[in-house]
Design goal:
Layout (H helix, E strand, L loop, with lengths): L3 H8 L25 E2 L14 H13 L2 E2 H10 L5 H4 L13 H4 L1 H17 L7 E7 L5 H10 L3 H6 E7 L3 H11 L7 E2 L4 E4 L6 E5 L11 E8 L8 E6 L2 E9 L17 E5 L5 H4 L1 H4 L1 H6 L6 E4 L1 H17 L3 E7 L11 E4 L2 E3 L9 E3 L4 H8 L6 E8 H8 L1 H11 L4 H15 L6 H4 E8 L29
Parallel strand pairs: 1-11, 3-4, 3-8, 4-7, 8-13
Antiparallel strand pairs: 2-10, 5-6, 6-7, 9-10, 9-12, 10-11, 13-18, 14-15, 14-16, 17-18
Helix pairs in contact: 6-7, 13-14, 16-17
Main location: mitochondrion
GO biological process, one term: methylation
Keywords: Methyltransferase, Mitochondrion, Transferase
Length: about 475
C-alpha cells in the first residue's frame, strides 16, 4: 500500500509549460423555482409561442397529452436530438461557453485525479497484474483526462498497465474537442465499425468513445477506474411535493399568456412552469419505498424530494463492475448536500448567469443537486461487496491528495513570472475555498472501492467537519 509521503511526492510532480484560469463563474449556482400550480383534470388552455424549435416541440406535446414529467423535460432539453443542449452546443465550457468546471480552472485538479487513481491502484496491490481501463463519463473538453494522463505517464509501471481509455460522450462536437486535446490538435476520432477511436498522445493507449457506459464490455483481466466529474448533476430528476393527499409529482406545463419572441431583447420570461399532478402517479406512489430518508419526510407538510433514477442506475453499474472485477474504483465529484435530501435545486445556467430552467429549452444548461445520500445507499447494497468513502468536501479531498504541495511546487517553478503566479494562486484558492458558496465546500467527492475491511483511502483520511448543511432554497429536516 502506498504511504502518505509517497502520495505527497506524487503531488509534487508534472508541470505544464503554461497554465491558464478563467475568472468566470463555476457551474454551481442556486436558483429558486417558480411556484407550482395544480393541473386541472381537463387540461385545455391557450398555448404560448416559445423561443426555440425544441421548446415548440415540447409545447405541442404538452398541448396534445397534458403536462410532462420533469425527467422527460430535462432529457429533451439536455440530450434531445431535436436541439438538446449537449447534443447541439459546440462547446458549452469555459469563458466563451456557459460555465467553467474545475479542470478548466487549474491543471492541478486533473493532475490530482490522476494521482488518486495511481494511489488507489498501488493500494490494491497494483490490481494483481490486471490491465487498467480508465473510464470517464461526461469528459467535457477532455481537460481532466489530459491532465491525469500527463501525470500517469511519469509513473512507468502504471502507464504500462493502462490498456485503454474509454470516454462516455454522446455529443459529436465534444468528441472532436476531446480527441484534439487527448490525441492531437489535427486529429478527429476514426470510426471503427462500432465506435469512434484514436490513440492518445501520452503513451499510445487507445481512446474509444461510447454513447452509454453500458456499451463498454470489460474483460476478466481488466480493472475499471471510473471518473464522473460534474456528471451526475446533469442527470434528469423527478420532483415530488408532499400534500395532504401524500406525495404528488411536479410536472412541467406551458406557462399561459406569455408571448416569447425569438430575437427579442426583452428580459427572458419563463416559457414553462411546474404543475402539481392532480392525482397519484406511479413514481409518486413509490417514493417512500425507495429510501427511509424519503419516508421520514412524508410527515412534513410541503416537503419536497428530488430523485434521479439514472443516478441510481449508474451507481449500480459502477458497483457491479468493481465487484465482478474484484478491483478498480469509481470517483464521483459533484455538488450537492452531504447529509440532506436535495429540494428545489433545479437551475439553469446561460453565459455564466443564473436563469430560469424554463427559458429557451435546449440553449440553457440544466442541472440539479446530487443526492449523495442516495448514491451511498445504492452502492452499499449487500450483493456488491464494495466500500463507500465520503462524501467529503472537495477542499478536504484535494488537501488530502497534496494540492498545497503541488501548488507550492508549481509556484516555485514559475518564480519571477507574476502573471503565472497569480493564475496559480487564483486556481488554488477557487478549488479549495470553503467560505460561502466556495467550490471547496459545495463540491463533494465520493469513492467506491472493493471491500477491504475499511482501509484508508486517499483524500478521505478524516470525516468532514460537522457544520450546518448548505441548502439551495430553504432548509429541510435532516434524515
Amino acid at each position: 500500500m502506498a504511504s502518505q509521503p509517497c502520495l505527497r511526492r506524487l503531488a509534487s510532480l508534472s508541470c505544464r509549460e503554461s497554465v491558464s484560469v478563467s475568472s468566470v463563474t463555476s457551474r454551481w449556482r442556486p436558483v429558486l423555482l417558480p411556484q407550482s400550480r395544480r393541473v386541472h383534470p381537463h387540461h385545455l388552455t391557450r398555448r404560448s409561442m416559445t423561443s426555440t424549435s425544441l421548446g415548440q416541440s415540447i409545447a405541442k406535446a404538452i398541448e396534445s397529452t397534458g403536462p410532462i414529467s420533469l425527467i422527460h423535460y430535462m432529457k429533451q432539453c439536455l440530450t434531445g436530438k431535436g436541439g438538446g443542449y449537449y447534443t447541439s452546443s459546440p462547446d458549452p465550457f469555459g469563458k466563451s461557453g456557459d460555465f467553467v468546471t474545475s479542470p478548466e480552472i487549474s491543471q492541478m485538479f486533473g493532475e490530482l485525479i490522476g494521482i488518486w487513481i495511481i494511489y488507489e491502484w498501488m493500494s490494491q496491490n497494483q490490481c494483481n497484474g490486471k490491465k487498467v481501463v480508465l473510464i470517464e463519463l461526461g469528459p467535457g473538453r477532455g481537460t481532466l483526462m489530459d491532465d491525469a494522463l500527463r501525470v500517469m505517464r511519469k509513473f512507468e509501471p502504471f502507464a504500462k498497465a493502462v490498456s485503454s481509455v474509454k470516454l462516455v460522450e454522446a455529443s459529436g462536437p465534444l468528441r472532436d474537442l476531446q480527441c484534439a486535446k487527448l490525441c492531437g490538435e489535427d486529429l478527429k476520432p476514426r470510426w471503427q465499425g462500432t465506435n469512434w477511436t484514436e490513440n492518445t498522445k501520452h503513451f499510445g493507449a487507445p481512446v474509444t468513445w461510447y454513447d452509454d457506459v453500458r456499451q463498454i464490455s470489460l474483460q476478466h483481466d481488466e480493472a475499471p477506474f471510473f471518473i464522473a466529474h460534474e456528471f451526475f448533476d446533469a442527470l434528469p430528476i423527478n420532483a415530488f411535493q408532499n400534500t395532504p393527499d401524500g406525495w404528488r409529482e411536479l410536472l412541467v406545463d406551458v406557462k399561459k399568456d406569455k408571448l416569447i419572441l425569438p430575437n427579442s431583447d426583452e428580459p427572458k420570461e419563463p416559457e414553462f412552469c411546474f404543475a402539481l399532478a392532480p392525482k397519484l402517479s406511479a413514481p409518486a406512489r413509490a417514493v417512500n419505498s425507495l429510501s427511509p430518508r424519503y419516508e421520514a419526510l412524508s410527515g412534513i407538510p410541503n416537503a419536497m424530494v428530488e430523485i434521479s433514477p439514472d443516478s441510481h442506475g449508474y451507481i449500480i453499474h459502477f458497483s457491479r463492475s468493481i465487484h465482478h472485477a474484484g478491483s478498480g474504483a469509481a470517483l464521483v465529484i459533484d455538488y450537492g448536500p452531504a447529509n440532506t435530501v436535495p429540494m428545489n435545486s433545479l437551475r439553469g445556467i446561460q453565459k455564466h448567469k443564473r436563469v430560469s430552467p424554463f427559458v429557451q429549452p435546449g440553449q440553457v444548461d440544466l442541472s440539479a443537486d446530487v443526492d449523495f445520500g442516495a448514491l451511498v445507499e445504492t452502492a452499499l447494497r449487500p450483493d456488491f461487496n464494495v466500500e463507500v468513502h465520503g462524501p467529503a468536501e472537495q477542499s478536504q479531498f484535494l488537501f488530502g491528495l497534496g494540492i498545497r504541495e503541488r501548488y507550492e511546487n508549481l509556484a516555485q517553478m514559475a518564480e519571477g513570472d507574476s502573471e503565472t503566479l497569480d493564475i496559480l494562486k487564483s486556481g488554488f484558492e477557487r478549488l479549495t475555498e470553503r467560505g460561502g458558496l466556495g467550490m471547496g465546500r459545495i463540491y463533494k467527492a465520493l469513492a467506491i472501492v472493493p471491500e477491504s475491511g475499511g482501509r484508508q483511502v486517499a483524500g478521505f483520511q478524516r470525516e468532514a467537519p460537522a457544520e450546518e448543511e448548505e441548502s439551495v432554497a430553504e432548509e429541510q429536516p435532516q434524515t
